[in-house]
Amino acid sequence: MGRKMSDKKEEDQTSVQLPRESKRDNVVADFIIITLQQHIGTERRDFTLHEKFQDMGMDSLDMVEVTLDIEDHFDICFSDEEISGWEDIHSVLKTINQKLDEMNVVY
């Protein structure tokens, strides 16, 4: 049986409607959205899975900060190669899920 992580709810819930496969996708996507909102200083809630980070107004410093927050929250580490492939929320979600699968994390 895999490790079970607590399902912490953020105070600021999003209403973003992203196609999600599982409860874990919901938790991960919600965290990514909230983190993006905090780092780019927006209350915007209409992100899409394939919207480019550059189009959201994110720069390289924003990406470093978002990456560190994700690593801390999910207790995972990303290689530079993995991070360099991130263009949108979908690519981050996919990478996080791969890492969590490797760790047998279930929700």
Polypeptide structure, described:
The protein has helices at residues 23-40, 60-74, 80-84, 89-102, and strands spanning 3-4, 105-106. It is mostly helical. It has a domain at 38-107: Non-ribosomal Peptide Synthetase Peptidyl Carrier Protein, Chain A, CATH 1.10.1200.10. The model is unreliable at 1-18 (pLDDT under 50).
Short description:
It contains four helices and two strands. With 107 residues, it is mostly helical. Strands 1-2 form a two-stranded parallel sheet.
Features:
single chain, 107 residues, mainly alpha, Non-ribosomal Peptide Synthetase Peptidyl Carrier Protein, Chain A, two-stranded parallel ribbon, 2 strands, 49% helix, globular
For the record, give the distance between the C-alpha atoms at the N and C termini, rounded to a whole number.
Answer: 11 Å
Structural class: mainly alpha
Q: How many individual β-strands?
A: 2
User: Overall mean pLDDT score?
Assistant: 81
Question: Outline, from the CA principal axes?
Answer: globular
